[in-house]
Amino acid sequence: MMAQPEEFCREFAEAVRTLKERLHPCPECGNFTEEDPCPICSDPFRDRTVLCVVETAEDLVCLEQASVFGGLYQVLGGRVSPMDGEEIDPRILETLQRRIRENGVKEVIIATNPCVEGDLTYFAVVDALRGSGARLSRLAYGLPVGGSIGYADRVTLHAALEARRQVNDTNI
Ligand SMILES: [Zn+2]
């Protein structure tokens, strides 16, 4: 910052100051936005029959930057963590149920983190969506791309073995 011109620093400070005033959670998905609904929810080219549930808006940004998902999102804005006394806001789960009904959602991908809190959050979402008619799935566990089996821990190796996929036809 010290190397930047004074004008840049003034504009940067102003941008930070107005950030919190302008941004608010999208009433549909919970993503931070200046518009209602957010640009993702209002994009007509996105698949409205697939919803990806993430814990935070940061997780949504990561998935968006990777350009790996073309459906809509639901930000939980929290996780289930008994140690920290955290629960998912029931209103978020109601919004999720409503969006599944209204958009005729066929699949809900639960993209919670691969840890104990992520597991508990996953179970809470599955519980809330029981009887919704949508297919529920969860991101796979496994070895990191570009990684090495030699460096993987025991739990990751076990999860990767459990989540293995058949790659040939049994008739071959
Ligand atoms: Zn949205």
Main pleated sheet? 4 strands, parallel
Strand content: 15-25%
Radius of gyration: 20 Å
Uncertain spans = none
Could you give the distance between the termini?
Answer: 62 Å
Tell me the number of helical segments per DSSP (H or I, 4 or more residues long): 5
H/E series? HEEEHEHEHEH
Structure classification: alpha/beta
The helical percent reads: 25-40%
Q: Which CATH architecture?
A: 3-Layer(aba) Sandwich
By oligomeric state, this entry counts as single chain
Q: Just give the CATH class.
A: Alpha Beta
Summarize the structure.
By secondary structure, the chain is of the alpha/beta class. It has five helices and six strands, in the order H-E-E-E-H-E-H-E-H-E-H. Zinc ion binds at residues 26, 28-29, 31, 37-38, 40-41.
Report on the architecture of this protein.
The protein is an alpha/beta fold and 172 residues long. It has a single domain, classed as Dna Topoisomerase Vi A Subunit, Chain: A, domain 2 (3-Layer(aba) Sandwich). Helices cover 37% and strands 15% of the residues. It has 5 helices and 6 strands, in the order H-E-E-E-H-E-H-E-H-E-H. Strands 4-3-5-6 form a 4-stranded parallel β-sheet. Strand 5 (107-111), helix 4 and strand 6 (135-138) form a beta-alpha-beta unit. The longest helix has 17 residues, at 6-22. The termini are far apart. The relative contact order is 0.11. The model has no long low-confidence stretch (mean pLDDT 93). It binds zinc ion (ZN).
